[in-house]
Amino acid sequence: MNKEFTELENLIDRIYKELITNNDGKVADYIPQLASINPEYFSISLCDVSGNIHNIGDHSIMFGLQSTSKPLSYCICRQINDYDIHNHVGYEPSGQAFNAFTLNNDKLPHNPMINAGAMMVSSMINPELEPSERFELVKNYYSQLAGNQSIGFDNSVYLSEQHHADRNMSLAYYMRENSAYHQKISPSDLQNNLNLYFQCCSCTINSEMGAIIASTLANGGTCPTTNEKIFDESITKDCLSLMYMCGMYDYSGQFAFKIGLPAKSGVSGCLLLVIPGKCGICIWSPRLDQMGNTVRGVEFCKLFTKYSKNKYHIFHTLTYNINEITKEKVINACAENNIKYIEYCIEKHIDFNQGDYDNRTPLHLACINGHYDLVIKIINLCDITISDRWGNTALSDVHKLLDENKPSMNNNLLKFEGVEYNCKEYDIIEYTNNSQTEYKVSGIWNGHVIEWLNTEEEKIHQSKSYKYRNLLKIYQLLSNKEYILASAPYLYSESHT
Questions:
Q1: What contacts 315, CB < 8 A, 6 or more positions away?
Q2: Of 401, 421, 451, which marks where a domain is finished?
Q3: Residue 166 domain flag
Q4: Helix-helix angle 207-218:70-80, to 10 degrees
Q5: What is the maximum span of the chain, computed from C-alpha positions, in angstroms?
Q6: What CATH number should be reported for the domain holding residue 263?
Q7: pLDDT tens, position by position, 290-326
Q8: Taking all residues of the chain, what is their mean pLDDT, rounded to a whole number?
Q9: 416 vs 209, residue with greater confidence
């Protein structure tokens, strides 16, 4: 579990505690079953793209997907069809209420995130199959998105949705009148499509499952807990674009401007928040604002943006040409001590925990090359427990380098060029070679020499002395122990870089 995930855990817990007393808003009441939910329920769940999960609050309570099912059904529809479904549903914000009786200039529903668009999407999910098979297909996809956890179903909500379907039925017939559907459609077909739409809204999850679903979208369509590829990356990208533009009802524009992340809310009080390439977050709190969004969920997003200093906004790095920064460039810059480039990467909040083909991270390369000043800059951004494919951490790598350069010794007696020295901790050993005095530094720690400068040519000696002095400092830094460094002007001259 990396440092960034721990920071997100702490941030989520902090915001949860701040919002637990926020009782603004009221639960949805357009159908009785939604109005009966306990308004005090509140949970937040986090799942990163590595599959790490964190929950707080009522995260085991099941609730209805409602409109948060719309982006999921959109992805399913795209995945199973070999034609462009956007010939039948647009991708523009409507500027109208989610259930508005309106179509765009092409006589199509404006986007898949409003009722008309979601009904159109449902009509294109294997209409040739029996209704039970269509629903089973959708439900199985939902389960895969949630890490193969079991998706529930609230039949009471489903029946109530059917009973209060006058407006949605009118929208369906209005689209039929305007020839918006993929194929000719009968009144019976309309009802079957509506039923599938209501069934999708009536599926139930908990906030942990919601976080895994959101993280699957953040991970390009691959579920982080099962590593199963569910949707093509191009489909997921388009879905996130729609969520960003249209996912928060009439608050979508303000949310995109202030929060800067793809999201989708539902009248059950669920909000799916996606941080592309990082994680998914699910907030569930049934009290809604006047636009139909969860009050605590929206407030969470505001505080999340505030406390994280807006660093997860998808356009935060736009002016810095983030696409030019690659994992390989970061690793190479750390190996070559390119501090200026690394400072640039730090400013853009680049992930320093990604490894190369051997899983050697930027910290590994900076450490084994003795780039102490660079290590100081990135260490707080790195997970020092990450191992390469041989099981070595940055700390163990440095220890090996120091240990490989130790001289032979017997207890505390250091033997070099046939002369034995009684070596105390961090002694400076002075000896004469070819009438020239040179300084050799050794450090004794738990009976082991952890630094020894053994060179023949002065030029090499100067270069290596600087490197190994840094290796010792890096070792101390990584092991978080207090050591005394020997002080020798010759070795500490910054001219020997």
A1: 260
A2: 401
A3: yes
A4: 50
A5: 104
A6: 3.40.710.10
A7: 999 999 999 999 999 999 988 899 887 554 444 456 7
A8: 82
A9: 209
